[in-house]
UniProtKB/TrEMBL annotation:
Protein name: GntR family transcriptional regulator
Listed GO MF terms: DNA binding; DNA-binding transcription factor activity
InterPro entries: GntR_C, TF_FadR/GntR_C, Tscrpt_reg_HTH_GntR, WH-like_DNA-bd_sf, WH_DNA-bd_sf
Annotated organism of origin: Nonomuraea zeae
Domain of life (superkingdom): Bacteria
Record keyword Cytoplasm present: no
Keyword Transcription attached: yes
Gene3D superfamilies (UniProt xref): GntR ligand-binding domain-like (1.20.120.530), Winged helix-like DNA-binding domain superfamily/Winged helix DNA-binding domain (1.10.10.10)
Pfam name, any one: FCD
Amino acid sequence: MQTDVACSRLRELILDGTYPPGARLTEMEAATTLEMSRTPVREALRALAADGLVRPSGRGVVVVALERDALDEAYQVRAALEALTAELAAARQRAGRIAPADLVSLRDLATETAAVTAEGRMAEAVRLNRRFHRLIAELAGNSMALHTLERIWDQIQVSTLRSLAPPSRPAHVSGQHESLLAAITDGRPEEAAAISRAHVLDTRATTHSKEGPA
């Protein structure tokens, strides 16, 4: 469906910073960029507005970044949901409901994310980190949690693009990933939840310190 294609492509352009927070976008400009008619683009912009990534402005939309307080709230919700998905994934692993190949994929993602982060390739590291956490959410088997997290991840990613920088302690971040992976692999739900929650809140604290005045 053309609307879905338009929505996906525009979302990618927003998330990678091609259209940064504050950027104004009209239907005509977007249609030209995507080489599509204006009708699916119009519907795509409405969908992105519903997801909180843009807001209507005149004849087009403006890309939205969360204010500091709203961003804090987004991280709090993300921490709670990722604690839940980590707990569910570990419980499903303990019950023998996760395929070994999925755990291998999770480990490979953790390893690749650590390497790319250590090298300071932050745009790629952000993508890999999101894939790592998304796979955990998929392994949790809760589609509502996954859907909600997708929206929150999008809003956080757009809102933190300006403060994107290599973490001051990449080994600490990678260590948290390894601890989370071990808790899930060993089927320890409560520990997985605690590690995941702490990891997300640590990420927010680090991002907060890199922000300018809100």
